[in-house]
Amino acid sequence: MPETVISVTNLLKSYSDITAVDGISFSINRGEVFSLLGPNGAGKTTTVEILEGVRNRTSGDIRVLGEDPEKSRSLIFKLGILPQDFSFIYNSTPKEALDFYKGTLTASSDLNEILEMVELGDKATTPFQKLSGGQKQKLGLALSLVNDPEILFLDEPTSGLDPRARRNIWNVIKTLKEKGKSILLTTHYLEEAELLADRVAIMNKGKIIDSGTPMEIVERHHEDDNLIIRGDGQVENLLGSGGYQFQREGPYIKVGLKSIRDATEIINYLYEKKAKFDDFTLKRESLEDVFVRMVGEIEEDETE
Ligand SMILES: Nc1ncnc2c1ncn2[C@@H]1O[C@H](COP(=O)(O)OP(=O)(O)OP(=O)(O)O)[C@@H](O)[C@H]1O
Ligand SMILES: [Mg+2]
Asked: Ligand 1, residues 18, 153, 184: which to mutate, most atoms within 8 A of Cβ?
């Protein structure tokens, strides 16, 4: 049986007239990367901060490493926290920030190793205000690692980062996972969740509307698979006379498939008819495709 490191049962959080988190339940196993996904205002940060012990809940039961974060005084030594919109004292350097955290958390980690890991070694003595947005974010990640935590809470760790810096953070997360860390990751980048997360929960308006592995979610909600062919009008004519439904999208022709096996039949048919086409691919919807539809459908239902 996997060991549960976080369990959330009927968690509810209200801010006067707003119910930010509306009775959610989920659990995270040791060594797992679990991702909370959802549009702006869905309640992700509220949930994460309640688990960190930074905010109090209205009701529900939560356990982090067996303890209630609202009451525990020792959990902070076992958790790594990268808050959304991380900031630090403006004229402090990464080295000073790390030294300060190391002292406060009575940690014994190798700070240079951590700085190298997040590719911030050459900025160790640059004041915080002179770091770029991505470098500030990397400092936040470095600080969350100082106490060699069992659980990491990463609230949008790659927001605003360029593609290379984002991949660097992905690699750090993969390394942490290999080391057996449990990670709660929130992100707006669906491909990031698809790549890193063992399981995801999709939140909307304070509720979890579905959860599972990224593959399970795509499997449950995807529409028809498509065969994408790069071809000209001759290919379109042949598809039409063969009775296939298709759509033109720029240089591509998109043919809806009832079953993935139909793709072989279509390609064989086009070869037999000596159709000229450059290439073809088979495309299943991504987590992002189904996410956008799931969240969009709920909003449409409510405005009807
Ligand atoms: N301190 C607060 N006081 C009042 N309302 C708040 C407070 N913090 C958050 N909220 C509200 O709670 C809801 C959920 O906010 P939360 O920050 O948890 O969303 P989120 O999913 O993290 O969004 P984002 O993707 O934009 O970070 C929003 O409607 C927000 O306006
Ligand atoms: Mg947030």
From this structure: 18
Burial code (b: 16+ CB inside 10 Å, e: under 16) for 265-285 equals ebbeebeeeebebeebeeebb
Position 51, amino acid: L
Instruction: For residue 75, report the distance from its CA to the centre of ligand 1, in Å.
Output: 24
- Which atom of ligand 1 is least distant from the CA of 39? 25
For residue 66, the CA-to-ligand 2 centroid distance in Å is: 25
Task: Give the chain's domain count.
Answer: 2
272: in domain = yes
Q: For residue 270, give every residue at least 6 positions away whose Cβ sits within 8 Å of its Cβ, in sequence order, or none.
A: 229, 235, 238, 239, 277
Tens digits of residue pLDDT in 265-297: 999 999 999 998 889 999 888 999 999 999 987
Q: How far is residue 216's CA from residue 222's CA, in Å, rounded to a whole number?
A: 10
Q: Global pTM?
A: 0.89
> Where in the sequence is the domain holding 23, given as residue range(s)?
4-219
